[in-house]
Amino acid sequence: MNTQLPLVSIITPSYNQARFLEACICSVLEQDYPNIEYIIVDGGSKDGSVEIIEKYADRLAWWVSEKDKGHADALNKGFARAKGEILAWLNSDDTYYPGAVSDAVQTLLANPDVGMVYGDADITDADGKVIGRFASRQTDYRKLLRGSVHIPQATTFFRAGLYRQVGPLSLDFFFAFDYDLWVKLAKISRLLYVPHRWATFRLHEAGKSVKDDSVCYPDMLKIYARERGGGLSWLWLRAQVRKLVYAWLPLRFRLFLRRTF
Prior knowledge:
alpha/beta, 261 residues, 39% helix, single chain, Spore Coat Polysaccharide Biosynthesis Protein SpsA, Chain A
């Protein structure tokens, strides 16, 4: 480890994702950044995931495989163990591109007023083929509450001190606990978009972004109500349009909208 550089703690939550897990793990372990603490929190998988994790156990700071209360709970377990000054999580069906961690750290070091950085992500299918590009762009607290999210979660890196001010991740949201975190961070710090490819975001039939997409906006509207008291809003309007139009579109048109809007 290079103690002159900040420690980056990366958490991978996983449950029955053996098909994708090894690619995810390798994308973290093969980063060129010399000061990474890697933690895997498995929810008690029965599909061979544990055997994959055990292959890399000597390169992990900590791992566990046990029943949990879901995605956010698994991440909270990992973050509770994390010692890094910078935190990130990479879901077990996503991957980092080479150099992503180094680039993110250098950006945070160069911008001390920034609480979280994020970049570009390629959208891939179940076989890892690139099928689109996530519509990343600069956002902030006000824009987030209007529904202008544009943050691919796999590319996010944030300061541990700020996370501890607003965390842990809320178990009240099945889908939008990441959005909830970004809103809270944006309220007390600046978010910064970096136009560099840092990760892949995988869409597949068993993934939450496909299977449970209908839960997304109801969760986001609860967060809006907490922040602004509810009522009519651009976010509410987006939710209606998504329910009436977006959810019925074929995947290729959804990807076009992700790239465009």
